[in-house]
Specification:
By secondary structure, the chain is α/β, with parallel strands linked by helices. Helix content is about 35%, strand content about 25%. A hairpin with a 4-residue loop joins strand 5 and strand 6. Helix 4 crosses helix 5. It is globular and about 45 Å long.
């Protein structure tokens, strides 16, 4: 593996998609990208930009949000179990993945969603998306991060001041979870979630480290 630690380095999303497409599919015929990192770091935005570039290539792509699998603020571990057992393992076995979306307002699982086996690319974003049990299926693991202050500000802006204590509890929990899973160190690419370097955010990311095969188009 090539290992480079060069903070503030631009990298095109297309070059990473080149790498993914040139590597063997590990999830049936589908290539799986995981986007993990602390809450408020920019995972959803990053996943959407990867999906847009993939669709521009004509790839059949779907984004799955871990927030739709958690059963509330204390449900991240269960959410990953649902992802592993009812989506990823089923697709690996040649069956469509299935999950019910968690309705945070109602506090219950709602409508059924299907993840077909015919996807070219599945992007899973959210805390726990790159837990170790998903490694065998993943073609690319992305970790995105920014400061605790920026993350908390983003969270309160989105969810409101009354949920500040919930956010602080979550931040403590995810810190311990990431340490147990060694998530950041296992990532192929570490992304700056609040970059100051000039770049095109729709087509480029600012990387802190890249760990890819020597023959990768992105290396």
């Amino acid at each position: 593996m090539e290992s480079t630690d060069t903070p503030e380095t631009p990298l095109t999303i297309d070059s990473l998609l080149d790498h993914v497409q040139s590597s063997p599919a590990r999830l049936g015929r589908t290539r799986l990208i995981g986007v993990d990192g602390p809450a408020g770091s920019g995972k959803s935005t990053l996943a959407a930009r990867f999906a847009a570039r993939a669709e521009a290539r004509g790839l059949r792509c779907q984004v799955l949000h871990m927030d739709d699998l958690y059963d509330g603020w204390d449900g991240a571990v269960r959410g990953f179990g649902l992802l592993r057992d009812h989506v990823l393992q089923r697709i690996a076995d040649g069956r469509e993945g299935r999950y019910r979306r968690y309705d945070w307002v109602q506090g219950a699982y709602a409508e059924l969603h299907v993840v077909p086996t015919t996807l070219d690319l599945l992007i899973v974003e959210g805390v726990t998306s790159c837990d170790r049990d998903a490694d065998r299926w993943q073609s690319l693991r992305l970790w995105i991060e920014t400061s605790n202050e920026v993350r908390l500000d983003r969270g309160i802006e989105r969810d409101g001041e009354p949920l500040r204590d919930r956010w602080l509890d979550w931040m403590r929990w995810e810190r311990d979870h990431f340490a147990t899973q060694n998530t950041r160190a296992r990532a192929h690419v570490v992304v700056d979630g609040n970059p100051t370097v000039e770049h095109d955010p729709e087509t480029q990311i600012i990387t802190k480290s890249v760990h890819l095969d020597h023959d990768s188009a992105a290396s």
